[in-house]
Each structure stands twice: as structure tokens, then as C-alpha cells.
Amino acid sequence: MRMRTIEISVGSFVLAGIIAMVFLAVRVSGINTTADDETYLLQARFDDVSGLRERAKVTIAGVTVGRVTGISVDAEYGEAVVGLAVQSSIGLLALDTGAQIVTEGVMGGRYVALTPGADEELLASGDFLTETQGALVLEKLIGDFVTSLGN
Amino acid sequence: MFRFLRLLGQHVLESLQTLGRASVLWVMALWGLPKLADVPLAIKQVYSIGVLSLVIIILSAFSIGAVISLQFYTQLVRFGAESTVGLGVALTVLRELGPVVTALLFAGRAGSAITAEIGLMKTTEQLSSMEMMGVDPLHRIVAPRLWAGFFCLPILTVIFSVVAILGGALVAVDWLGVSAGSFWSGMRDGVLIGRDIGNGMIKAVIFAVVVTWIAVFQGYDTVPTAEGIGEATTRTVVYSSIAILALDFVLTLVMFGDFN
């Protein structure tokens, strides 16, 4: 009888551990929130992506429609190549869709904002977005401003 | 001068001997995987080490989560960035406080108990009578406690992290009025399962090995007197705490030192 209570409580202890682990995986790190949705991949070249991270959101008009899947550098052109996974339910975007790296709030994280274009031709999966604008770097802006004052 | 050198040498040799004895104990106790017949012994230990530690773990986790949430909120609200409270709480708990505080509490709650128990067994010569009967005390007494310790601390750490995050959510969302959506989605955006949860668990496993090892060895190596047991219990808590905090710094440096 005594051994039985011990075994039951150890069993519940282990079960609680497993439930807690699942909670961490699903609720805290959100592993299947993105895995469920069908997505297609777009790519974009930026001159500066400082502050952008993998899994940052991709938005259209402020609504999250995807995630940043990879950031790599193309040393030949000195540009960053960013992979964007966009939900298929959004549909294919126009060829002249623009991508801009924006900051959320004053101290918030960076994300990619897409502005759909008007072109009749559509982007296919894996295509590069051409109309891009990189991250605004405050120090650089101030630097440019100061040099322009000098002129 | 020579006296100083001699003292230093003596000290180093003693420490090395202790380390050697501890390693021998470890290898001897874990030699060969646990047999199926030993599982009930280990289950009993999981009960007294793990299940009975749950109350203190849950209570501390809840208060710690609530306090961090409150502190993050009061600072971040000044920049209008209170939507990152959830992420801050989750990362602090998963990367650092979860593994470290759980291990510290575990050393105080379970580690000292293991040391006192084994120490008393040695003092009352139960260990030597076992040997006389042909029962290996390393397999009968030490091994189940080691396995139970390795097993329990990671589970306790996971439970700690979850309760702390829920406590943080309670304070931030229900009391301070951060929107539930930004609290949880901010967390999901910033927490990576491998980098944050995985590394936290690796820490927990390493702390489990270190704390249980220290506790069992201090008990087994007790000077067999009433005073000796007291000293051994103190040493378990002190050595474990120092080992946990020092190791945590090193592990953090290795895991998160690339400042990503």
C-alpha cells in the first residue's frame, strides 16, 4: 500500500515534468505555430539588416503574414540576403512588392514590412524582391547629417 | 617559509586524494547500468528527492517569476516597451534562474538530506554490516540516489520554469494590465527551443550530476561522529552552491557568450 502511493506520486511527478516540457515547447517557444501553416519562400537583398533576427515577423500593413527564415551575407556585393517564409493563404505577391526593415516602437525588435505592388506579374516561390530598403541606422544618419552640414 | 610551503602541499595533496576518492566512488557506484531489480529502490529515492521537493520548488518559482515580471515591468514601462516583459521573464527564467535556483534549492532540500542519511548509516555502521552480509552498499545505497538525482533535477527545473513563467504572466497580464497577446507572442518570437530551452536543460543535467555527486560523496566520506555528519551536511550545501554558481558562469559563457 505504502509502495503504491509512492509509485503513484512518482508517476504523477514524471507526468507533470512531461506536461511542463510540452508547455515550454508549444506555449513558450511556439514550435508548431509556424509549422502548421503552409508557407512559400521569398528572398530579399538588403544593404543593411542590423538588428534583424531569424524568426522575426514579416508583415503586410501591420498584420503578421510570415517569418524571417534565414539571414546570410553575399560578400561579393556586400549585401545581406534574407529568406522570408510567407503564408500561402496570402497568395502570391506582385513583382514590384517592396520590403523594408522597420523597428517596432522605440526599443522594439526589427521586422520586415512588405508593401504589395501593382505589377500584374507575380513573384514565384524563391524569387528575389528588388524594391528593398534596409534598416535605418541612427548613427549613420547622424553621421550623414553632420557631413552634409560641413559641406 | 618552508612551513607555508609544506602546509600548501599538504592541502593540495589532501584535495587531490578527496577528488580521487570521489571519482572512485562515482565510477564504482555507476559501474554497469542499473538492473531492473533495482528500479523500486530508485523509485523510492525519486519520491523522497523529487516529489517531496515539489512544494518548495513551486512556491519559490512562483514568487521569483512574479518578482522578475514586476521588476521588468516597472523598468520597461518607462520606454513604452512593456510588451517585451513576457520575453524578458521567459529568457531570464529559461536560461539562468530556472536551472540555477532549482539546483540551489535542490542542494539545500535534497542534497543535505542525502548526505545526512548516508552519513548516519555510516556512523551507525549500517554500511559495514551490509558489507558483512555481502551486500554492496555502493549498489544498494549510493547508486539509486545518484540515478534518482540525475533524473529528478531536470524535471524539477522544467516545472520551475513553467511555474515561474505562469507567475510572471499572472502579475504582468492580470495585475499590471499588459495585453495577454503581446506577452505570449513576444515570448514565442524570441524564445528558441534549442538555444534557450535546450541549453537550460543541459545546464540542469550538469548541475544534477554535480550536486548529487557532491551530496552522496560527502555522506559516504563522513567522519563517523555526530559532529562529522553536521560538517558533512554543511559541506554539501556550501560546495554544491559554489560549484553551481561557478559552473553556471562558465556554461553561460560557452552557450551564450557569442552575444547573439
Task: Give a quick precis of the structure.
By secondary structure, chain A is of the alpha/beta class. In chain A, 30% of the residues lie in helices and 33% in strands.
Provide an overview of this structure:
The complex is a heterodimer of chains A (151) and B (260). Chain A has helices spanning 2-28, 31-35, 138-150; strands at residues 39-46, 57-60, 63-74, 79-87, 98-103, 110-115, 128-129, 131-133. Helices cover 30% and strands 33% of the residues of chain A. The model of chain A has no long low-confidence stretch (mean pLDDT 82). Chain A is α/β, with parallel strands linked by helices and 151 residues long. Chain A has three helices and eight strands. By secondary structure, chain B is an all-alpha fold. Chain B has one domain (37-253). In chain B, 84% of the residues lie in helices and 0% in strands. In chain B, helix 1 (2-30) crosses helix 6 and helix 4 (85-123) packs antiparallel against helix 9 (226-256). The A-B interface holds A 3, 6-7, 9-10, 13-14, 16-17, 20-21, 23-25, 27-31, 33, 55-57, 105-109 and B 40, 43-44, 46-47, 50-51, 54, 79-81, 83-84, 90, 94, 154-156, 158-159, 161-162, 165, 184, 187-193, 196-197.
